[in-house]
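A reminder before we start the practical. When you read a complex entry, don't treat the lines as separate problems. The point of joint prediction is that each chain is placed relative to the others, so the output describes one connected object in space. Small molecules and nucleic acid strands, if listed, are placed in the same frame. In the example below there are two entries. Take a minute to note the order of the lines before looking further.
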Amino acid sequence: MLEDGKISSKQYFLIIFSVILSVSIFSVPAPTVALARQEVWIAMVIAVFVDGVVAATLYYLGLKYFPQSLVQYCSTILGRIPGKITGAVFIWFFIHVAAITVRILGDFMITAVMPQTPILVFAVTLVILSASAVRNGLEIIARLAELIGPVLILFSLLTIGLVLKDVNPDNLKPLFHTGLIDILKASLIPSSWFGVCVIMGMLLPYHDKPQKTFVAKMGGVITGTILLTAFMLVQMGVFGVHGTASLTFPSYSLARMIHLGDFVERIEVVMMVIWLGGGFITLTVLYYVAVLGTSQLLNLKSFQPVVIPVGIVIIGLSIMLFSNHIDLKAFINKVFPFYALSIEGGLTTVLLIIALLRRGTAKKANRK
Amino acid sequence: MTKSLSRLFRAWKRKKSRTSASVSAELTANLTYLQEALGSSTDVVIRQFTVGSAQPVKAALAFIDGLADNVMINESIMKPLMLEMRMVADGLSKKDILTVIKDKVISMGQLREVDNLSAMLDGMLSGDTVLMLDGYSSALLFGTRGWESRGVEEPLTEAVVRGPREGFTETLRTNTSLLRRKIKNPLLRFEVLTLGRQTRTGICIAYIKDLADEKIVSEVRKRLERIDVDSILESGYIEEFIEDAPLSPFATVGNTEKPDVAAAKMLEGRVAILVDGTPFALTVPYLFVESIQTSEDYYTRTFFATLIRWIRIIALTSTALLPAVYIALLTFHQEMIPTQLLLSMAASAEGVPFPAFVQAFFMGLVFEILREAGIRMPRPVGQAVSIVGALVIGQAAVAAGLVLPSMVIVVAFTGITEFIVATQIESVTLFRIFVTGLAAVLGFYGILLATLALLIHVLTLRSFGVPFMSPLASGSIWDLKDVFLRVPKWAMLTRPQAIPTNNRLRQKPLQYPRPPSGKKKD
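Here is the predicted structure of the whole assembly.
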């Protein structure tokens, strides 16, 4: 067995929650608010629904082919060669998203906090640290999420609570003035990020109670969504719709608004460091899933030899994929939703349909 | 080099398999053996005399002066043998003398017959007295252990305001008796083994049979039996041989100097290891949260105990991170410092040429040097050290323009908080250097990196199969009742679930104190 560890429902919940909240908080608010305006919450509800469909698909497939992971049951469903290719597509997707995550985190650091430092510093340090966690296996990552996840929840609530006094309720009006098309377009952005939880398909076999995976996963998604929506509403309340849409990192600017007494102010760096900690979990989980998938695809006995090569690929991609922040932003807003959803939603649906068809034919064959 | 090492190693292995001769029927042969084995050490006493009056038998009594109790030897061995033996021995044949001595003459509790010379020698070296009789191929060992030892005193570490003040001593037997006095359960077990080829140190595994998990006990036994070394002078010697993570800065074996602490840990299903010659007992499995628990938490009232827990958590965090946060603020994130304070700090920084990290590093170094000097110095000199330290650290360094006044405060505060969680001093000091360095390079991001690296490391640690960080990460959420809180005794129903045990429930549930039920309110 590649991985002997088992994770509990609580750990599963916190992993999914960290993945949902921590990177989305950098990439989702500005473009979503720009499109959906005061109706972001509808867009978020749609996103949760879309993600629920993906989760249900993966849950069904995961239980049907139980001890196998997503990459492994691709071959069972599609046959050897097409299955391997599909598995490779998923692995590429994990690596790609991991690289984008590194890029988002690094980009945030050089844009907002340390403009003089080369982005390579952040990419390399994050990935090296992540690799050391990945080498130790799933249980360590799960425990890390168990330690950092609650801190993430606590500080998110703290940020929201401390800026509530700056919220201008008029900014949240008028309600229901955005067209359905715009809302649907807007919902693509969060749902593409929520769909990253296709990692669920890889982690399901390691859940100690696989039947409860769906509940744990949706719990994580819904908790993350509620916090993220609260963030966006508060941002709109503080900065207005246009303000939020035009800010590079609205959440960062929001944390800047915190004033407590006359001496606790400008603590946005502390808040951001904690979100970076959450982002680190996202990166680590994606990295781990990519490593695990690769070794399953290649039928390796241990995933250790794959860790360093995958890490190098992630560092390289994160630097080379985008030339600057504008480039990254354009990709995330315009390309990523379609690209990601076609894999998260499209490919899994294809898998489901073929699996159902094959079961149908198998039943017929049995009857004969 | 490798060749000579392997030769040494083979020689080491050969030495182990030496066989021992049995006690000879010739008294002179045995005495020669003793003389050869012990040389002409002045503390070896061999007293030759005869037993019986009609057919006197030559006998010799041997013991080590200082280890054996002289009064006991005189009163309970020599006197009966030389005086009372005459009354019984008149009609005795030579054959029965040993049995008669054993069964009728010697009035001592501990007595055993050995026929092996090396066992005899071992007994003697532990303070027993040997009686050899001419014509018998076995010797009698009397338990006469009694040497000068420190009494049971209040330990210097782990001081308490409320709670038992006795501490372990250097004598293994005293220590086991202290434990036995706390736990009068027949299931309290002491397993003894001897380790160290030169020192032959007695090691005792103590546990409560129904509470401790049999797997952990046998794992402890296995790891101890694997040790094959020259000497064991302190429990630290075996700690490094039985650790799960020998190269980690974190200790995965706990130690305590107080019997009540050891007993409490054994009552939670842990295993204690007592080592002869040291007042420190080891306890395994050891969890990180034990470092913020003290015995007094359980003797004081619950709310205050919980408050103190939190103060310890804050102290531990600030001693690890405070210098790093200070440097990150000063170097990268000046905007977080309130403007007034920033201005006054900038004013005082006017004449200080060194960057914050250099200041912190050297002040930290000075503090560690003073601390070490304070421990090693003879007591009377300690005063001088503290005065010099206070002046050097406090006043002179600031006046001379070497460091910022605020840096002095940070370093001093860090130094003091270090002692609040004394068990983690070593790991925290190392981590502080690491995180301060990263903070100087990368600011708060560096602190995040260092903290994540630390978390990844501690999360991989295990102590005898139990995750080191449970119940903080992994494990039951109910175990937090004794981490962030210290719930009242009547609510502390179960033993910590992190430590495997066969007996989960600690007490009868629902014992919340109520007014007497017979009375009615009027």
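Discuss with your neighbour: The interface with chain A takes residues 332-333, 335-336, 338, 341, 442-445, 447-449, 451-453, 455-456, 459-460, 467, 469, 472-474, 477 of chain B (CB under 8 Å). What might explain this?
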